Amino acid sequence: MTSTNQQLLSTLTAAPILERLCRADMARLLPYVELKQLAPGEVLFSPGDEADTLYYIIEGELTLHSSLPSDISLAHGYLGEELLLNRATYTGGAKANDVGCRLLAFHGEDARRLLSQDSTMIDLFLASYTRHHDQEPWEVDLNAAAEKAPKKGLITLLGWLLVFTVPLLVYFFTAPLEITENARTFVSVFLVSIFMWAFKLVPDYVAGMLSILVVLVLGITPSDVVLSGFQSSGFFMAMSIFVLAVVIVDSGLVYRLSLLLLKLTPCSTFFYNLMLTLIGLLFTPILPSANGRVGLISPLLKDLLSSLKFKSQGRDATRMALSAFFGVSLFSSIFLTSKAINFLVFTMLPTQVQDSFQWSDWAQAAAITGVTLFALFMLLSYLLFNTGKHPELDKSQIKLQLNILGRMSLKEWGAVLGVLLLVAGIVTTSIHKIKPAWIGLAIMFIFLALGSLSKKSFREKIDWPFLFLLGTLIGLTRTLNYLGLDQLLANKLSGLQQMMTDNFYLFVLVLFGVILVLRTALSTIATIVIASSVFLPLANIAGVNMWVVGFIILTLSEAFLLPYQSTYYLLFKGINSPQPLYHEGAFLRFNIWMTLFRLMAVYASIPVWRAMEIL
Fold first, then answer.
1. What one-character DSSP code corresponds to residue 44?
2. 94 with 133: CB under 8 angstroms?
3. Please, is 433 exposed, middle or buried when counting C-beta atoms within 10 Å of its C-beta (0-12, 13-18, 19+)?
4. What is the dihedral of CA 521, 523, 528, 531, to 10 degrees?
5. Strand runs labelled E in 17-92
6. Could you give the C-alpha distances from 21 to 27, 28, 312, 326, 603, in angstroms and in order?
7. What is the Cα–Cα distance from 529 to 474, expressed in whole angstroms?
């Protein structure tokens, strides 16, 4: 390590306020920090300059021109706090005194993001600012940009109109049909939730819980049926995976692995893209949220693009963005634990099918689809975006970041042990006969008992709204089966049932079209619920393996053509502002090809499934 890097590291770790950062966040901050030397009398910034940098004084003195009656001299502490307080420009000016000055400079939006995570840190920086300028602190809304309330308009009004009219019309017009009163009522209630999902009138889990509440109040089915989702193995397995994911991320293990892979990657554009895709693939089976994986890969992508100095919106930068995004999203259906919604489809399978498609069996059966998608993605991204450049990555900075992380902590070792125990337990299920869900629950208990997961993290970092949604969806699909609606749908769609038996390739194409139509108005979750409720009973009657149809639904439902159809793309798109990094038009055109590739990968898998006697 050079003397400059050593000084930067020692100063950064000793700076007040920054001690609140964990080691992983300190390492993430490093690429946006530099040592800055001011000559005697040199101006650091002037009033009205863009507030894009926070400074920390290491040695020397500065004169700060503020709103106070006289200038003040600073020999320690921070200035330029406007960056963290959402001020567009500096309030005052600063210049070095006669002896000059050395400072740490924290640059840009990424530094602001990392230093704004802790509300106490914001309070401390605000206190520093007011000491310098002696004015009343203003109200700061740090989340104003992220939490702007959507405007209520005609679309919302239309949604509520459909909620109050269509279910009632369906209830009355289905009276002549040969279905029970309870079945008619349930269909109407379920339509209310579907419209709420489609028009985003309320959070998804609220719409699901409304249906559960109405079913319970009206006594449509016994409570143990409609609430069965909250005692299902899929629900507890999803909760256990969420807990394991929080422990892995909080420990810093994911960031350490990412840095190690970067350190070992050969200096080549191809290998950097391959590395980003493989990091996403590594995240996929252990982090059951595409949004969470996007949140982890986005800062790494920005760091890489900054270090490699690729042209903004150029082909190389766009290719790197594609590798990062599809690395964390392309394989969501390949592993059972990749997304919590996978557990919904899993719980809809008969018990004997569930036993045949535990984690390792699921991954093995899905492998041909995953390999095909990976090969097609790498080939097309190379053909469309390869420029032949050979950039060099400064790996001394990566070594410095690893030095900040230090040796693996007990939490990291605990996370590694948790993953190994879960994998070993799943692989050896046939020997000990314990369901993977209960193994995951035992690991969760160990983490909680040993303090690897704090009460605060357990309360705030587990995606409880989605777990509630998962429990309600499982209960609602079982209610649908209890009322015989699955058989009714299967009988009404006998033509599709025959197609599934006679020409499975054509059936997949029809299913692909249905899913694309549903995705124009519905979220991925709602599409999977509806498609699974309709087509899984068809597969059961037709004698087709229900896992195959469920897996195809999961794979095709992840496709999107327009940004609004994918929540995790909208999250990923955030890295493209305020300064665009990749070319969004080229990105979305490439995504259309990937939508078609999903269909091609399914087609490529059919002969293999038949050879494996799955289909």
1. E
2. no
3. exposed
4. -10
5. 33-38, 43-45, 53-65, 72-74, 77-79
6. 10, 10, 30, 30, 49
7. 9
Q: Which residue has the tokens 């399914």?
A: 602
Using CA atoms, how far residue 195 sits from 32, 216, 498, 518, in Å, is 45, 20, 31, 12
CB contact set of 436 (below 8 Å; sequence gap of 6+): 233, 237, 358, 359, 422, 425, 426, 429
Exposure string of 55-76, with b = 16+ CB inside 10 Å and e = fewer, is bbbbebebbbbbeeeeeeebee
**Which band of pLDDT confidence, cut at 50, 70 and 90, is reported for residue 516?**
very high
**375 C-beta neighbours (distance < 10 Å), count:** 13
Share of the chain residues as helix, strand and coil, in percent rounded to the nearest 5:
65, 5, 25
Q: How far apart are CA 389 and CA 401, in angstroms?
A: 26
Token pair belonging to 182? 């309870």
**Span 370-397, pLDDT tens digits:** 999 999 999 999 999 998 887 777 778 7
pLDDT in tens, 83-133: 888 788 888 889 998 888 999 999 888 788 888 877 778 878 887 887 776
Query: How does the average pLDDT of the chain come out, rounded?
Result: 87
Token duo for residue 517: 């139509």
Distances (CA, A) of 8 to 5, 72, 110: 5, 27, 18
* Rg of the chain in Å (alpha carbons): 27
Neighbours of 560 (CB within 10 A): 22
Give the pLDDT confidence of 584-604 residue by residue, as tens digits.
Answer: 999 999 999 999 999 999 999
In Å, how far are 221, 303, 376 from 382, measured between CA atoms?
55, 22, 10
The contacts of residue 455 (CB under 8 Å, 6+ apart) are none
Calculate the CA dihedral of residues 355, 360, 361, 362 and round it to 10 degrees. Answer: 100
CA angle 575, 577, 583 (to 5 degrees): 75
CB 387 within 8 Å of CB 316: yes
**Which residue matches tokens 């994986």?**
293
The residue type found at 118 is D
CA distances (Å), 328 to each of 175, 278, 295, 332, 335, in order? Answer: 47, 9, 10, 8, 12
Return d(Cα 28, Cα 13) in angstroms, integer. 13
Distance CA 104, CA 125 (A): 15
The three-state DSSP-derived secondary structure of 481-528 is HHCCHHHHHHHHCHHHHHHHHHCHHHHHHHHHHHHHHHHCCCCHHHHH
CA distance 389 to 373: 25
Residues 6+ positions from 178 with CB-CB distance below 8 Å: none
Of these ranges, 58-72, 357-371, 411-425, the one predicted with the greatest mean pLDDT is 357-371
